[in-house]
Every structure is written in structure tokens, then in C-alpha cells.
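Budget justification aside, the reviewers requested a transparent look at the raw inputs and outputs of the sequence design task funded under Objective 1. We therefore reproduce one unedited record. The lines immediately below are the C-alpha cells for a 171-residue chain.
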């Protein structure tokens, strides 16, 4: 039997492109690709095969990808999320530049681990802030009612939020 290649395969590729654009710091482009991906989904994934056992794994995978894409887009499209990502990138670049200047002035070699240590420090500080923002922004903007109406399983919603934060933080 031929593997399932639903309309979702194009959407999944667009989500991957959006994540890679976000990893490169292209927030606006990432938002557009995520918007394009989500516009391709119409109704439940593989609705014609909803009760077929062979399709359950693909259906679950597509639904999780869609939910994570929705959460990632909400994170990227809100001003606070966008600015936090921009500030995070700027702090990493500023730390790397300062480290390079200090290394050149003191005639020291700079190891890649030094730069990744700076990135890890920034990420370790701001990643919890991003997680808090992802959850609390739903309540301050009252979008939690729509979210939990569309996806009543709160575990899936919070798992998707965790995936979105991880994707935004690590690309």
C-alpha cells in the first residue's frame, strides 16, 4: 500500500520552513510561512480515514504538528513574543562581540564553547520567561476560551505550547 501523502504534507513542509526561518532570526518570514501552512488545513486531518486503524498514527501526527504550529504562530505574532525573540538574538550577538573584543585585546584565543556558553546563558535566562509568556498571553488576551473550545484536552494544548517554546528557542 502506498504511504499516505495528504494535503498536510505540504503544510508540514511549510511548518518546517517556518521553524528554520525562525531559527535564522527571520521572524516576519517565519510568521508568513506558518500562516501559509495553517491556511492549508481545512477541518480534521485525513477526515475521510478518521475511523480507519491504518491512518490513526498519521492523523495524530498531523494534528500535533498543526496544534504546535498554531502555538508557534501565536508566539511569533504577538509583539511581546517577537520582541523577546529579537532581544534574545541581540543579547547573544552582543555577548559574542564583547567576548571577541576582550579576547583580541587580551590576545587570547576564543573557543566555540565560550560563544555557546553565552548563548546558553541567555537562553537559560529567557527561555522560562518565554514559557511563562506563552501560557499567560492566552489569559490576558482571552484567547484561552477559543483554544480550549477547539482543543478541550489541556494536556495537548500545553504540550503544543512546550513544543512552540522549544522551537522558538532552538530553531
Amino acid at each position: 500500500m502506498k504511504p499516505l501523502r495528504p494535503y498536510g504534507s505540504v503544510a508540514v513542509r511549510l511548518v518546517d520552513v517556518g521553524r528554520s526561518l525562525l531559527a535564522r532570526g527571520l521572524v516576519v518570514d517565519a510568521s508568513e510561512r506558518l500562516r501559509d501552512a495553517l491556511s492549508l488545513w481545512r477541518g480534521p486531518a485525513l477526515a475521510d480515514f478518521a475511523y480507519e486503524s491504518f491512518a490513526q498514527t498519521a492523523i495524530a501526527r498531523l494534528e500535533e504538528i498543526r496544534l504546535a504550529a498554531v502555538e508557534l504562530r501565536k508566539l511569533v505574532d504577538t509583539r511581546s513574543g517577537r520582541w523577546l525573540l529579537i532581544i534574545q538574538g541581540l543579547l547573544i550577538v552582543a555577548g559574542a562581540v564583547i567576548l571577541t573584543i576582550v579576547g583580541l585585546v587580551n590576545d587570547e584565543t576564543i573557543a566555540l564553547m565560550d560563544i555557546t556558553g553565552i548563548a546558553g546563558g541567555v537562553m537559560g535566562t529567557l527561555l522560562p520567561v518565554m514559557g511563562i509568556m506563552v501560557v499567560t498571553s492566552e489569559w490576558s488576551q482571552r484567547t484561552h476560551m477559543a483554544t480550549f473550545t477547539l482543543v478541550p484536552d489541556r494536556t495537548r494544548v500545553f504540550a503544543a505550547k512546550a513544543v512552540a517554546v522549544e522551537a522558538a528557542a532552538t530553531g
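Residues 1-6 have pLDDT under 50 and may be disordered. DSSP finds seven helices and no strands in the chain. Computational costs for records of this kind are itemized in the attached budget.
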